[in-house]
Amino acid sequence: MSIVVNIYYTGTDGNARKFAKEMESSGTVAEIRKEEGNLRYEYFIPMADPETVLLIDCWKDQQAIDRHHSSPMMDKIAELRMKYDLHMRVERYVSDEGGIPETDKHFIKE
User: pTM value?
Assistant: First the structure.
């Protein structure tokens, strides 16, 4: 089982993008990707909302998320969220370990 957390960071005046850029340029993202149990940590920009950045954050299990939440990285993330005055919306998903059903594979071009 893996856990995917989608975090939508929203601000004004391009602050969500500035936040993501600083997370990358400061090395914080690289450090998070090295954390035990991290499977994915990537930012995306929704085409319909230029003031929002989507973080897709994927972890091996809840214990990995708990370790991350108690790490020094969280202080840095919180500091940058405050700096850029961002608001968050969070979605959480647990992976389907059964894989993609055969009935869905017809719609996927690899």
Answer: 0.89
